[in-house]
Amino acid sequence: MQRNTPTPHKNQPFRLNTMIVAIVCAALLVGVLIGVSLTSVANSNPENIASSVYIDSAAPDANLCVQYGASAIVTDTRVFLTLNPFKVYITQPRMQPGCVLRTSDWAILQQRNLITSQQTGDCKNRLNTFAYTGKLENSPQISCVYENDAAGNLFASQGQIGTKVQ
Questions:
Q1: Which of 3, 6, 45, 51 is 20 to 30 A (C-alpha) from 65?
Q2: Over the stretch 95-145, which tens digit does the pLDDT of each residue have?
Protein backbone atom coordinates (compact mmCIF):
# COMPACT_ATOMS: atom_id res chain seq x y z
CA MET A 1 0.00 0.00 0.00
CA GLN A 2 1.32 3.36 -1.01
CA ARG A 3 0.49 6.57 0.66
CA ASN A 4 -0.24 9.62 -1.43
CA THR A 5 1.70 12.18 0.46
CA PRO A 6 2.72 15.28 -1.42
CA THR A 7 6.38 15.61 -1.99
CA PRO A 8 8.03 18.81 -0.90
CA HIS A 9 9.37 19.40 -4.42
CA LYS A 10 5.92 19.97 -5.91
CA ASN A 11 4.95 22.83 -3.54
CA GLN A 12 8.37 24.43 -3.14
CA PRO A 13 8.55 26.16 -6.55
CA PHE A 14 5.18 27.80 -5.86
CA ARG A 15 6.33 29.11 -2.46
CA LEU A 16 9.63 30.26 -3.94
CA ASN A 17 7.91 32.13 -6.78
CA THR A 18 5.50 33.84 -4.38
CA MET A 19 8.33 34.83 -2.09
CA ILE A 20 10.40 36.23 -5.00
CA VAL A 21 7.43 38.24 -6.28
CA ALA A 22 6.82 39.63 -2.77
CA ILE A 23 10.48 40.65 -2.39
CA VAL A 24 10.57 42.29 -5.83
CA CYS A 25 7.32 44.19 -5.11
CA ALA A 26 8.64 45.38 -1.74
CA ALA A 27 11.91 46.53 -3.32
CA LEU A 28 10.01 48.35 -6.06
CA LEU A 29 7.76 50.06 -3.52
CA VAL A 30 10.73 51.14 -1.39
CA GLY A 31 12.50 52.43 -4.52
CA VAL A 32 9.49 54.50 -5.56
CA LEU A 33 9.13 55.97 -2.07
CA ILE A 34 12.82 56.90 -1.94
CA GLY A 35 12.64 58.42 -5.44
CA VAL A 36 9.59 60.53 -4.58
CA SER A 37 11.16 61.78 -1.36
CA LEU A 38 14.43 62.71 -3.09
CA THR A 39 12.58 64.51 -5.87
CA SER A 40 10.47 66.56 -3.47
CA VAL A 41 13.54 67.50 -1.41
CA ALA A 42 15.47 68.56 -4.54
CA ASN A 43 12.66 70.83 -5.76
CA SER A 44 12.18 72.60 -2.44
CA ASN A 45 15.64 74.17 -2.50
CA PRO A 46 15.49 77.83 -3.69
CA GLU A 47 18.79 77.36 -5.51
CA ASN A 48 17.17 74.65 -7.65
CA ILE A 49 14.52 76.34 -9.78
CA ALA A 50 12.78 73.32 -11.23
CA SER A 51 9.24 74.51 -11.81
CA SER A 52 7.28 77.41 -13.22
CA VAL A 53 5.28 77.52 -9.98
CA TYR A 54 8.38 78.64 -8.07
CA ILE A 55 9.21 81.22 -10.75
CA ASP A 56 5.62 82.53 -10.70
CA SER A 57 5.67 82.89 -6.91
CA ALA A 58 9.04 84.70 -6.95
CA ALA A 59 7.99 87.25 -9.60
CA PRO A 60 7.54 90.86 -8.52
CA ASP A 61 3.83 91.51 -7.91
CA ALA A 62 3.22 87.80 -8.52
CA ASN A 63 -0.58 87.91 -8.86
CA LEU A 64 -0.50 90.93 -11.17
CA CYS A 65 2.29 89.40 -13.24
CA VAL A 66 0.49 86.10 -13.79
CA GLN A 67 -2.79 87.89 -14.57
CA TYR A 68 -1.37 90.45 -17.04
CA GLY A 69 1.72 88.77 -18.41
CA ALA A 70 4.24 86.10 -17.55
CA SER A 71 6.85 85.68 -14.86
CA ALA A 72 10.44 85.52 -16.03
CA ILE A 73 14.00 84.90 -14.96
CA VAL A 74 15.95 88.06 -15.77
CA THR A 75 19.66 87.77 -16.49
CA ASP A 76 21.71 90.96 -16.35
CA THR A 77 25.12 90.65 -17.95
CA ARG A 78 27.47 93.35 -19.17
CA VAL A 79 29.73 92.81 -22.17
CA PHE A 80 32.95 94.79 -22.63
CA LEU A 81 34.56 94.81 -26.07
CA THR A 82 38.07 96.10 -26.69
CA LEU A 83 39.23 96.74 -30.24
CA ASN A 84 43.00 96.91 -29.88
CA PRO A 85 43.56 94.09 -29.08
CA PHE A 86 40.21 92.61 -30.02
CA LYS A 87 38.87 90.91 -26.87
CA VAL A 88 35.49 90.30 -25.30
CA TYR A 89 34.96 90.41 -21.54
CA ILE A 90 31.71 89.35 -19.86
CA THR A 91 30.59 89.94 -16.27
CA GLN A 92 29.06 87.27 -14.09
CA PRO A 93 25.29 87.12 -14.77
CA ARG A 94 22.98 88.50 -12.12
CA MET A 95 19.75 86.49 -11.89
CA GLN A 96 16.56 88.02 -10.53
CA PRO A 97 12.81 87.53 -10.88
CA GLY A 98 10.95 89.68 -13.38
CA CYS A 99 7.71 90.07 -15.27
CA VAL A 100 6.90 90.49 -18.97
CA LEU A 101 3.57 92.22 -19.66
CA ARG A 102 1.30 91.51 -22.60
CA THR A 103 1.04 94.43 -25.01
CA SER A 104 -2.66 94.75 -24.21
CA ASP A 105 -1.90 95.37 -20.51
CA TRP A 106 0.49 98.34 -20.64
CA ALA A 107 -2.22 100.49 -19.04
CA ILE A 108 -1.09 99.19 -15.65
CA LEU A 109 2.26 100.95 -16.09
CA GLN A 110 0.65 104.08 -17.57
CA GLN A 111 -1.90 104.39 -14.74
CA ARG A 112 0.91 104.35 -12.19
CA ASN A 113 2.92 106.94 -14.20
CA LEU A 114 5.81 104.49 -14.60
CA ILE A 115 6.08 105.00 -18.38
CA THR A 116 5.43 108.05 -20.51
CA SER A 117 3.36 108.27 -23.68
CA GLN A 118 6.63 108.76 -25.60
CA GLN A 119 8.04 105.48 -24.21
CA THR A 120 4.76 103.72 -25.00
CA GLY A 121 4.80 104.99 -28.58
CA ASP A 122 8.45 104.04 -29.13
CA CYS A 123 7.95 100.55 -27.77
CA LYS A 124 4.72 100.04 -29.73
CA ASN A 125 6.33 101.20 -33.00
CA ARG A 126 9.03 98.55 -32.64
CA LEU A 127 6.38 95.87 -31.94
CA ASN A 128 7.87 95.25 -28.51
CA THR A 129 6.45 94.99 -25.02
CA PHE A 130 7.42 96.08 -21.53
CA ALA A 131 9.10 93.99 -18.85
CA TYR A 132 10.25 94.94 -15.39
CA THR A 133 12.09 93.85 -12.28
CA GLY A 134 11.27 95.03 -8.77
CA LYS A 135 7.89 95.86 -7.26
CA LEU A 136 5.77 98.40 -9.16
CA GLU A 137 5.35 100.55 -6.05
CA ASN A 138 9.12 100.70 -5.39
CA SER A 139 10.57 102.26 -8.57
CA PRO A 140 10.92 99.15 -10.76
CA GLN A 141 13.41 98.89 -13.59
CA ILE A 142 11.23 98.89 -16.71
CA SER A 143 12.55 97.96 -20.16
CA CYS A 144 11.07 97.79 -23.62
CA VAL A 145 11.88 94.23 -24.69
CA TYR A 146 11.74 92.44 -28.02
CA GLU A 147 10.40 88.90 -28.25
CA ASN A 148 13.05 86.82 -29.99
CA ASP A 149 11.91 83.45 -31.29
CA ALA A 150 14.87 83.05 -33.65
CA ALA A 151 16.80 80.74 -31.32
CA GLY A 152 13.82 78.48 -30.67
CA ASN A 153 13.29 76.30 -27.63
CA LEU A 154 16.09 73.77 -27.64
CA PHE A 155 14.63 72.03 -24.58
CA ALA A 156 11.41 71.21 -26.43
CA SER A 157 13.01 70.40 -29.78
CA GLN A 158 15.43 67.72 -28.57
CA GLY A 159 13.92 64.38 -29.45
CA GLN A 160 16.54 62.18 -27.88
CA ILE A 161 19.31 62.68 -25.39
CA GLY A 162 22.54 63.09 -27.25
CA THR A 163 20.89 64.29 -30.45
CA LYS A 164 22.68 67.32 -31.82
CA VAL A 165 20.31 70.16 -32.68
CA GLN A 166 21.56 72.66 -35.24
A1: 45
A2: 899 999 998 888 889 999 999 989 988 988 888 899 999 998 888 999 999
Cα–Cα distances in angstroms (integers) from residue 121 to residues 69, 81, 124, in the given order: 19, 32, 5
**What residues pair up with 48 in beta bridges, in sequence order?**
none
| Domain edges within the chain | 9-45, 52-157
* Rounded Cα–Cα distance for residues 69 and 130 (Å): 10
pLDDT band at 89; cut points 50, 70, 90: very high
Rounded to whole angstroms, the Cα distance separating 139 from 116 reads 14
* 73 in Cβ contact with 55 (< 8 Å): yes
Beta strands in 52-128 (DSSP E): 69-76, 79-83, 86-90, 94-101
